[in-house]
Write a sequence for this structure.
């Protein structure tokens, strides 16, 4: 009887020891998993902050460059070369009858004859590049009695501390 009690006690001690050993291994694994998840949460929160900051900057620029785009479009309609000269990039050339934008080693010519008809502009989209050096905005050109709605795409680059128009393209 005494041997049975010792045997049961030894089995019980082994069982408790094994259980404790397995529990400590599982606890270590869980702690490691928790640490990995906490790091992932931290990375995602940082990524979320960066995305929110990008969209905030993009929206603020949208407001600023919307005003500038309308000013430039009015200057084009009126052939106001002085205003245009102040708002375009350094690689763009202005002549009395046209503007030549240089983009990707190509010349994009905007003839002032294109602006004979006055139109209202309605912003359709805008996008700030990931490196925050380029801003593209598209405007619907609303003409009375028009069958289709053309879109004017204006590209700005950040140059010498200011946003300058570097291209106008029609879609």
């Amino acid at each position: 009887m005494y041997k049975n009690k010792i045997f049961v006690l030894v089995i019980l001690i082994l069982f408790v020891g094994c259980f404790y050993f397995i529990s400590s291994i599982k606890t270590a694994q869980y702690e490691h998993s928790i640490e990995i998840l906490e790091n992932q949460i931290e990375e995602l929160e940082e990524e979320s902050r960066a995305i929110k900051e990008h969209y905030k900057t993009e929206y603020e620029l949208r407001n600023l460059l919307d005003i500038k785009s309308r000013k430039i479009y009015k200057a084009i309609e009126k052939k106001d070369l002085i205003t245009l000269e102040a708002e375009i990039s350094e690689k763009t050339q202005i002549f009395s009858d046209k503007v030549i934008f240089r983009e990707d080693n190509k010349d994009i010519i905007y003839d002032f004859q294109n602006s004979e008809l006055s139109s209202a502009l309605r912003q359709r989209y805008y996008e700030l590049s990931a490196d925050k050096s380029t801003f593209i905005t598209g405007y619907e050109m609303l003409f009375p009695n028009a069958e289709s709605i053309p879109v004017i795409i204006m590209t700005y680059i950040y140059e010498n501390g200011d946003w300058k128009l570097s291209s106008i393209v029609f879609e």
